[in-house]
Amino acid sequence: MTRRISRREFLVVSGATVATGLAAACGPSEPDVPADAAPADAPAADEPAMPMGKYREAPELSEMVQAGLLPPVDERLPADPWVLPVLREIGKYGGELSSIVADPTANLFEISNARGAAAAGRSYDLGSIIPIAVESFSVNDDSTVLSVSLRAGQKWSDGTPFTTEHVSFWYEDILLNEELTPVVNKKLAPGGETLKLEVEDDFNFKLVFAVPYPVIIDILPSLSLWAPKHYLSQWHPSYNENADAKANEENFDAWYEAFQYHADAGETQQDVDLPVLGPWVFEKQDTQGNTTYVRNPYYWAVDAEGNQLPYVDRLQKLVVENREVLTAKILAGEGTHHSWFLSLADFPLYKQNEASANFTARLHPDLRASEMGLAFNYTHTDPVLRELFNDVRWRQALSHALDRNEINELRFAGRGVPRNPIMHPGPLFWQEGLDQMYTAYDVELANSLLDQAGLTAWDSDNKFRLRPDGEPLALTMEVDAGRADLSETGNLIKAYWAAVGVNINVKGQDQQFYMQRMRANEHDIGVWAIGGSSEPYSRQNEPIRYRPPWHWSSTPLGGPLWRQWLDTDGAEGMEPPDIIKELWETTVQWQAEPFGTDRYKELGLKMLQINAENVWLIGTVGLVPRASIIRNTVRNAPDSDNILSIEYGMWTHFQQEQWWIDS
């Protein structure tokens, strides 16, 4: 069963309402409480009575207040906390959220997504970008100044007031410090010039850009423009003349190594004392990597009835030996929610275990353009292969040689869409058919195109084609050895291409080694799952799937030396052809254009058309639904209608501080 998907099915506004609805988005007022909102249960008789005040808190925090370990909740919250509209119902306090991973260093989105506190984020319906850790933001008419207001009375997790002092510390002592920031992220240097910070008072500041920068609104969900100065300054020489000695005492070679260690609030965090702004704070980690995060008593958000969030006491990242153990534990009902490490192929198995494990397995819309995509190395060191890979007839031929319908049936139970990885049918500039160019399975056409590309000679067995120089045409498709799905699809591709005389070997490699080979320009074919292709992701980050190297520079699938040349204005790398230069300039202009303008749509369509016509990135099957498993006791969690996709940061916008456990 192979299906096509319409634009209407995947119409997701990627920040579209920001340009027209910024005033509303940037200054949300306290929502009305729905008439049918269920009240939070009163504490049981054996629970301590909560102190009277404007806001309410978790029983465990109330106990700490009564013991003199915490100030009352009204003093811990800002004057105007962030008020979250009711998702489905007002929750109850207690319990934990947990998920499982087979690699202690891997990013477990189920947990990490719950902990962040960026300046802004997507609304629950994905329709707009709203303030999160700040009270409001706005841009001036020419998009050269972003004005930001913090919440008066907002605090770090240790109770220290959160003010522009911490913004200045981030800017002056981290961003502008060459030892901590050797290269400024391009997001923070539009026009090639690092943004400027202007602090007005304790709660208001401005970011000033050298050029109009309307995309700053799209980028805000990925930015935290502050750091806890009161804590981290002890490892910084601008505040501690003995910072190097202090670092040496902790077995670091230099102050900046110690600083980075203590500043790490991500998946590899080790410092339990680091103050944060998110709803849960790091508590402990054992030798296996099992990690616990506990409620932030100073979290600055409440529900519509004035209950301080989060509802859930703690988060647990659970680490197991391998994927087999992970699957077994999930099927036994361990963990509260899962998706990132689930397999669509195992979805029938998940459904079979729903009743016994007390969970519900769902399929969610996902915007990933292709579950597996590939690019040839267009800057290959072998001049014969380099010329071949840059012949569009070669790429068209090998795209036509793929039986995507069979891949869809064998790998994805017919639930995906055979396509090339040209975004998703949602953007304002989408044009039907772009993702279907050169995707028809046609062996005769593929053979004809290969002949036209000069590959008319075959080996003595008449099995494989020879290169234009008469040598055997044999290529290696390297894949991440940890991704069995990529190897399996790769072997299907091997058979399809063998049918038109192209010989490839599929070779599993350690991911880090494979990435090093790509960066060194030593690979033939770059392979990856093609996420990061959507309109919102391309705006918030960069259009990584629509210009060299068709991924991040750290994972250059095709033409790493082209990207070097483009990044260095020709000082390094290999000069690309004119069409690549035109494409690059198109993507740069598209990112700089305000969202939704006629010019924005014109540039966006051009960007997609150039990619579709030239087939630098070849896809297989995309828009495959994503599986999730959520324990039935978890309330306010997403259902099957909600998009669950890396394009929107997986669980990020699902407001996990409002999830609660029905015991």
Would you write up a description of this structure?
- With 663 residues, the chain is α+β, with helices and mostly antiparallel strands.
- Among the domains are: 321-366 and 627-654, no CATH class; 370-622, Dipeptide-binding Protein, domain 3.
- Helix content is 29%, strand content 15%.
- The protein contains 22 helices and 24 strands.
- The strands form nine sheets. The protein has a four-stranded mixed sheet. Strands 5-6-8-7 form a four-stranded antiparallel sheet.
- A hairpin with a 4-residue loop joins strand 7 and strand 8 (204-208).
- The longest helix is centred in the C-terminal third of the chain and has 17 residues, at 598-614.
- It is globular, with a radius of gyration of 26 Å.
- The two termini are 41 Å apart.
